[in-house]
Amino acid sequence: MGKDAGAVVDADLRLKALDNLFVVDASIMPSLTAGPIHAAVLVIAETFARTMNIES
């Protein structure tokens, strides 16, 4: 995620390979923790919702 060359989405969660496609789930996380990831996914979703709200 972000500016890393291996990232598949940019900082706004837009898929780099396709236009107007966003990825808002745990698959964008560079590495998973050993524990539950629910809270991290909620933060990703909240960040995306705020971004979309600003752009609208």
TrEMBL record:
Q: Where is the Glucose-methanol-choline oxidoreductase C-terminal domain?
A: 1-45
Query: GO MF terms on file?
Result: flavin adenine dinucleotide binding; oxidoreductase activity, acting on CH-OH group of donors
Top-rank taxon, per record? Bacteria
Against InterPro entries, the record matches this protein to:
FAD/NAD-bd_sf, GMC_OxRdtase, GMC_OxRtase_C
Q: Which Pfam families match?
A: GMC_oxred_C
**Which N-terminal stretch is annotated as signal sequence?**
none
The UniProt similarity line reads: Belongs to the GMC oxidoreductase family.
Q: Which PANTHER family match?
A: CHOLINE DEHYDROGENASE, MITOCHONDRIAL, GLUCOSE-METHANOL-CHOLINE GMC OXIDOREDUCTASE
Annotated protein name in UniProt: Choline dehydrogenase-like flavoprotein
